Amino acid sequence: MKHRARAHSLKMWDHKLFHQVASHSWPGAEPVLPRLSRSANHGLLWFGVAAGIAAVGGRDGRRAALRGIGSLALASATVNTVGKRAVRRARPIVDAVPVIRRLRHQPFTTSFPSGHAASAAAFATGVLMESGRWGTVVAPIAASVAFSRVYTGVHYPSDVVAGAAFGMGAALAVRALIPTSDGSPADVGPAVNAPSLPEGRGLFVVVNELSGPPALLNPPAERIRTALPMAGVAERTEDDDLAELLEKAAQQAIEHNGALGVCGGDGTVTLAASIAMRHSLPLVVFPGGTRNHFALDLGINTVEDAAVAVMAGTAAAVDIATYTSYDTPGGAEAVPFVNTFSIGSYPELVRVRERWSRRVGSWPASVLAAVHVLRTSEPVDVEINGRRRSVWLIFAGNCEYSSVGLAPVRRRDLNDGILDVRIVDGGPFARTRLVGAAVTGFLTRSPVYSAAKLRRLRIRGLGAGSHLAYDGEVVPAPSELLLGKLPSALVVYRP
Q: Can you say whether the dihedral through the CA atoms of 433, 434, 439, 440 is positive or negative?
């Protein structure tokens, strides 16, 4: 009885507050709020705001815009597939709402929760997590959109409150899957000798135009030429072989006693690192991909940061990790990677993400791919250091990563000599327990999750059709492989 009385009281309060908003005069709101409410249909307002932030906000603005859109995508999917089907509440009767405020096209879906409020809260919260400055700009717009749903008579106040809660929860879930970082560079070993190259003289750079989102204004190649006018810059297009371009640039750097430069994503950087090591050349990394994890850990956030290091000749030696395949005809082959290696569900996530990112953008694609993989992936049976296990994921990082939730964030040291190994076991309800632990922040305490700091890791018994991922590249996995480290193997410029 008490429960029913409480529910009745809340319903009466909800209706009373709705009628108070409907009957109150709001000077200046009539020409603004209905239009604002309509502009948020299908997320169009937020896509426009995100484009504006990305265009003028620099790197931080782009990250904030992508996180906002990723949060919005998850919130919208959750509200429309779960929320509205769970509570089939009728829309308010709009008789009390002045005609001038009403929307021309009344929504026909159920009322609870408000999808517009969920999208607004998700976008604003996601932006705020990456950039306090842009978050404070977006928050009033999001609040106005949420209020407009009551003002125009299409939602009760409780619909809006519940929708906002859904949206903020979606942003928190995205942070668990794709954590934010503090932006601080990792430690490295002692400084090493590298040539200072005034104005980039002796530096030969390959820019992979196929990495990352296209830059319509001030593309990376032009920024490199402006910052280092004496550097040789080659731009890779679809018709060019990336390895051949990097080899040619390396030979030119050797002839001029200079350095090899690369601009692109982490997969491009990994290929350049292997060529630089083979020729004993220092490497310059210019951020030009979608995520730029290695460049950021070096403290290189912009092209200009790298240019400062090149002209000053400041450099350090960092670790490189490798996986050695024993299925290669003619003998074992060691493949280097600068960031991460994985087997299990993550390679499938990378493949799905790359397929969808062309349509919806990188971060929304990451969220949707994670949801897809969590629903469809299955554990794999594998032998790890002599022990047979059923695992959902094997992750190995080049040096130790800090982490929040499911994903590694940043490294504290690029010269620690270890592999950061993390394993998620299979078994009953493993994925449900894992997601719950990640979202609530108790991942490291989950019984399905284990971590170790190693120098070598042997993996055997992978079945035919298995794949592995390293630095964003997905390739068929050998039946047997060995992970290891090359301490202080690569000389890189850094500020």
A: positive
Residues in contact with 460: Cβ distance below 8 Å, sequence separation at least 6, in sequence order: 382, 383, 479, 480
For residue 405, give the 3-state DSSP assignment: coil
pLDDT surpasses 60 at 4: no
Please state, in angstroms and rounded to a whole number, the distance separating the CA atoms of residues 477 and 141: 48
Q: Please give the single-letter amino acid code of residue 434.
A: L
Residues 6+ apart with CB under 8 A from 409: 179, 180, 181, 401, 402, 403
Q: Is the dihedral of CA 141, 144, 148, 149 positive or negative?
A: positive
Q: Which two tokens stand for residue 377?
A: 């992936």
- Of 291, 338, 341, 284, nearest in space to 315 by CA: 284
Instruction: Look up residue 274 and give its amino acid.
Output: S
Q: Which residues contact 67 (CB under 8 A, 6 or more apart)?
A: 126, 127, 129, 130, 171, 174, 178, 180, 363
Question: Pick from 403, 393, 384, 412: which is nearest to 319 by CA?
Answer: 412
Q: Phi/psi at 461 (nearest 5 deg)?
A: 80, 20
- CB–CB of 252/204 below 8 Å? yes
C-alpha to C-alpha distance for 444 and 422, rounded to whole angstroms: 10
Per-residue model confidence (pLDDT) at position 156:
81
Helix axes 132-151, 115-130, angle to 10 degrees: 170
Single out the residue of 172, 150, 168 nearest to residue 159, CA to CA.
Answer: 150
Residue 33: closest CA among 117, 164, 144: 144
Return the structure tokens found at 492: 């890189």
Convert the pLDDT of each residue in 363-418 to its tens digit. Answer: 566 666 666 666 667 778 889 988 888 888 888 999 998 765 445 667 888 999 99
What distances in angstroms separate CA 494 from CA 151, 487, 488, one per listed residue? 54, 18, 14
Q: Provide the β-strand partners of residue 451.
A: 422
| Residue 490 structure tokens | 């690569």
Contact 66, 290 (CB under 8 A): no
